[in-house]
Amino acid sequence: QLAAVITVDGPGGSGKGTITQMLARKLGWHLLDSGALYRLTALAAERQGVALDNEPALVVVAAGLDVTFEPTAPGEPTKVLLAGEDVNAAIRTEQCGNNASKVAVMQSVRDALLQRQRDFRKAPGLVADGRDMGTVVFPDAPVKIFLTASAEERAQRRFSQLLQAGVDVSIANVLEEIRVRDERDMNRSAAPLKPADDAQVIDSTGLSIEEVLGRCMAAAGQA
Ligand code: C5P
């Protein structure tokens, strides 16, 4: 008997990270941040001196990732350990996100991470955050959400986060990076970003976090 899964897919900056953490906490379910696995693959490759176009070597890196996800206090992001080292800050940079989207175009790298993602499916249930959770990793999930927002709004959110973190960027730059990453994620042949046929699409443009959470809970039939 497989545990229940709610998949939440969508582009970067759509609020998926925040929403899936809140959903998982509310339901008392496990959480899979699949983007972290692609980010970790990119980071581990960099540290091991593996070029981002060396597909066979990247597969070895992905398959051999020594990663631990440690739960933290409610409301805080899960702590991510790579070979025991806290790499949370290192994997959250724009550059690491960009590199992640480059390794994520490779089918063989995706295959190397597939079972690791499915292993997160445990009782009482799983909230899975990513790009292909509903289409590839958990195609049988009873509840699939596709969370989106306009590129401008996503750029604005990301810009505010970066400002708060003291990073000096321009909104135009952030918007451009979001467009480039969207383009790459949507137009790749391996598991492109798109809503599953049976996904409920929620557009969070102009909505507060609480409103989005309410819609997701309603979609999950738990409202
Ligand atoms: O969601 P996050 O920004 O952490 O994801 C980083 C990158 O990893 C994405 O831009 C995407 O290319 C890739 N990714 C993916 N499939 C997933 C999750 C993330 O291809 N399920």
UniProtKB/TrEMBL annotation:
InterPro entries: Cytidylate_kin (IPR003136), Cytidylate_kinase_dom (IPR011994), P-loop_NTPase (IPR027417)
Family recorded in the similarity comment: Belongs to the cytidylate kinase family. Type 1 subfamily.
Lineage: Bacteria, Pseudomonadati, Pseudomonadota, Gammaproteobacteria, Pseudomonadales
Gene: cmk
Pfam families: Cytidylate_kin
EC number: 2.7.4.25
GO cellular component: cytosol
GO BP term, pick one: pyrimidine nucleotide metabolic process
Lineage top rank: taxon: Bacteria
Catalytic activity line of the entry: dCMP + ATP = dCDP + ADP; CMP + ATP = CDP + ADP
Residue intervals of the Cytidylate kinase domain: 6-219
Record: residues binding ATP: G10, P11, G12, G13, S14, G15, K16, G17, T18
Any one Gene Ontology molecular-function term assigned to this protein's record: ATP binding
Keywords: ATP-binding, Cytoplasm, Kinase, Nucleotide-binding, Transferase
Protein's name according to its UniProt entry: Cytidylate kinase
Location(s) in or outside the cell: Cytoplasm
